[in-house]
Every structure is written in C-alpha cells, then in structure tokens.
Write a structure and sequence with these properties.
The structure is a homodimer. By secondary structure, chain A is of the alpha+beta class. The first copy, chain A, contains eight helices and twelve strands. Chain A is 38% helix and 23% strand. In chain A, strands 1-2-9-4-7 form a five-stranded antiparallel beta sheet. Chain A has a four-stranded antiparallel beta sheet with strand order 3-8-5-6. In chain A, strands 10-12-11 form a three-stranded antiparallel beta sheet. Chain A is globular and about 55 Å long. Chain A binds a DNA duplex through helix 7.
Chain lengths: 239, 239
DNA sequence: CGGTTGTTTGAACTGATTCAATCTGTGTGG
DNA sequence: CCACACAGATTGAATCAGTTCAAACAACCG
C-alpha cells in the first residue's frame, strides 16, 4: 500500500491561498479570510489510500480539481461510498476520528490546512459560519437523496440518478448534454449499492433505451428530460 | 388530513425552557443560553402529517419525549425515512425550504422555537456553536452508517442493525437487554428500504434464530453479542 | 511484449417483491 | 358487554431483479 501524495508544496508566496480557493469555486469574499493560513497543495491518485477510516481528521480539505469520495467498509468487507466532493467542495475537520476513509475518484488536486489554523478563523467570523452552515445543509440534503436512491429505487434509476447528479454537480454545459464519466463501474456499484456486473448491464440498458450514448469514458445524454424522469432526478436538493 | 398538534402551550413562567431542555437531555450549561426565548410545547401523533416536505423550516425543534422522523418520497410514491430524532435530539432551522417532511414515529412531545430567536444566540456563543457542530457531525455519521446499511447489507442485517441502533439511542438498560419496539413493520420497511411483508419475515427469522424474543411490542435481545454480529453493528458511529 | 485494470457476457441461483388473503389486537359506539 | 371497524401482523404462491461465479475481451502502459 503506497500512500498517494505527490507534489506537496509548502506554503509559498508564489500562489496566494485566497486566490487558489477563489479560482476553484469559493466566493472570493469567503476565500479572503484564509489568505494568511499555512496550507499544502496535495495530489491524490485514484483508488489509492489517501486517508484511512478511523484516522484523525484534524485538517480541512478543499478540492481544487478532480473528485474525492468518502467511503465506509461493512464488517463483511463490502465497500460503500457515502459522499462525493467535487471541485470547490471540501471536507471539514472533526474533533473525533472519522469512521470513513477518503479516496480520490480521479486524479485530484486538493488543498489541506490544519484544523487549528482554520477553526479559530471560522469561529470569529459569523459570515464564514453562515457560509459553511449552508454547505453542511447541502451535504445533508444530498445524503438524504442518496438514501432514497439506495432504499427506494431500482438499479436502473439508481445509476441514472447518479449520472444526473454527477452531470449537474460537475457543471455540465446546458447546451451540450454530455460529460466525461469519472467513475469506473465498480465505483458506481460502490455508490449505488450493487455489483459491478449489474452496473454494466444497467449501462447497456440505458444505451439500448436511447437515453445515453457512450464513447469510451464520454457520456452523451441523448434524451435529458427522459433521463431525468427515469432517474426521478429533481435537482432542487442540490440547491 | 388533520394536522396533529395539540397541547400547544404558550411560553409560560410555570415551566422554564432551560429546565425542560435540560431535563430532556441537553447539558444544562447549554440549555441555560435559551432560557429567555419564546417557545411552544407541541404534541405530535404518530403517522400523521406534522411538517410537509417542501415547507419552510424557520424553526428549531427539540424532542422532549418520543421519536421523530424525517422522510422523503420518491417520485414513484415510495417513502423513505432518512433520519430519526430521539429524546434530547433536535432538528435545526434551514434558510431554504427543506425537501424532507417530518412525522412522529410514536406519540411525541416536542419543543419549537423560531429560528429568528434561536440563530442570533447561536451565532453569539462559540460554546453553542461547538456543541451543535458536534451534533451535526454525529448526525452525518449516522447518515453514512444508514447508507452502508441500505447499500451493503442483506435484509436481516438491515433490520437487526436498526434494532441495535434504536436500542442504544433510546438508552437501553445495559443490564436488561430489552426495549419496547417503537416501530410498526411498515416504518421499519421505510427505514431499511424494503417491504413490510419482508420485514415481517425477517422478524420471524430473528426470533427463530434465537436472537430476539417478541412479546407484543416488547423486544428482548436474547443474544446481544450475536445480534450485534449479525447486524454488523459497531456503535462507535454514535460517538 | 506482459502485466494490470476495467468492461462485457452467460448461466444458475437466490433473496426480495408483489398480490392477495387471513388473522389478531384494540378501540368505539350501541 | 357485544358487534363492528380498523390498523397492523402474518402467511402463501408466483414472479423477477440482482447476485454470484466464471470466463473472455479490451485498453492502457512501462
């Protein structure tokens, strides 16, 4: 097991943190509060251990590019991905160790800072509190939707829903109904609670139904409204 | 559809809010901050609409006794319960309307206050922020565990896990491995993503295996360690 | 080229759903 | 106190969605 950190750059004046954060999707008046704290830029490789379950999480993580996931293992060894973090999103520190592990879905560039540097600023600034409060509620909202997805939808709808959510969260062009699918079929299975074999069949199904077209990792949504209907995807929960 | 609010008591001097909160499980130094805000004591009846999905949530809710649930409906009309709130737990206000509805699982007594009275106090007190921060992280942790439950465990483990969690969260006596099951089989189905028919079979299974014994609504855990193993229940995620 | 990782396909199997019927307990009104 | 209604629990039979196991195929990379 090789830990996948490369390109760890110490805080340098060449790149201002506030600028990096803003450029990666954080509102600049929020990012400005963090201009002086020490940070690292880290690269995480897909499907390599990045943070193990049970480790302490005395750090903030912010996704500059790529996608991170939080995952848990059942005692039977089966893996479930419980949350995703896209560009501009992040993972807040905890006081206790966290039950979940963190991995990259694709090659991901992220920014980390120590909780002890981050938290005091957060506590001193009501504006920041409100901002992170809203992020937390959005994540809660997404968790609930995932629970509905796993608990109450059949396998086709589950996969379709994930694709719709991913398209929207990764900022799919409204003109160009297509995206590059970031997931392996095993990852889709780990998110939607299935086996990769069945995910494969579902993809083939969606293609046969004329809802998507696949060219390698590219997915073209050929009938977005119908796709949304099949997925029962109502994007309100993403705000 | 009859809204189930009774016993709505205006803020009276006869009962001090801080006292009520503390008595229902909130640490008293936390409860003390809320001694002066207006509140209502409300009673909610099981399986009756209490707050509809999509409604604004400009209120804090605190459970004095009983159990509340948050639920969502899939567009196919199937219902999924996404979270529970036991005695001493609560539901925080949102800026936007919430996608989920709220109902009582059993007859529940709760305390509500307006967000506009609550939030300013929260924002002014770092100690309160840290307290609610921890509650939020616990809820996140539970959500993730539920996702693992729905996505990666078979129906017996799902139900067993719910029973274990419920026993612990409702404060089952460590000497007396028994509790009064608060759920109908339909509610268990709505939590674990199954049909009530199958939940019934799972209960019968658990009993046949000698893991539990049922007398009406009472459940006696006859082999708690084995029950935990079957459920793959590791209570760490509850803190 | 060989190694690795991911995708695709088939056949057999099983767990869970669906639909429908019956049973049980509890509360209500006469 | 009985009759009735209603909600929830239980059971059976047929069906189907998704898993499991196993094998083949494709793409990529040093």
């Amino acid at each position: 097991m090789q830990v996948s950190r490369r390109l760890k750059i110490a805080n340098s004046n060449s790149e201002a943190l506030a600028g990096i954060l803003a450029e990666a999707g954080m509102p600049s008046h929020i990012a400005a509060y963090f201009k002086d704290i020490p940070y690292k830029v880290v690269q995480a490789d897909p499907r390599r251990p990045f943070r193990e379950p049970g480790a302490y999480r005395d750090e903030v993580i912010f996704v500059r590019s790529g996608i991170l996931c939080k995952y848990k293992m059942d005692s039977g060894g089966r893996r479930q991905i419980v949350a995703l973090r896209f560009r501009g999103e992040g993972i807040l520190p905890r006081e206790e160790s966290a039950q979940y592990g963190i991995q990259a879905i694709v090659k991901t560039e992220l920014i980390t800072a120590r909780a002890e540097d981050f938290t005091p600023i957060l506590e001193a600034q009501p504006e920041l509190q409100r901002y992170f409060w809203r992020l937390i509620q959005r994540n809660e909202s997404i968790s609930y939707e995932w629970l509905v997805n796993c608990g109450r939808r059949d396998s086709v709808a589950r996969v379709a829903h994930l694709l719709c959510e991913t398209a929207v969260r990764s900022g799919m062009d409204d003109e160009q109904y297509k995206m590059s699918n970031p997931f392996t079929q095993q990852q889709v299975a780990d998110i939607t609670g299935q086996t990769s074999v069945n995910v494969n069949r579902v993809f083939a199904d969606l293609e046969r139904q004329g809802l998507i077209e696949r060219k390698g990792r590219e997915i073209l949504f050929q009938d977005w409204p119908e796709m949304r209907r099949v997925a029962s995807f109502q994007p309100d929960y993403l705000e």
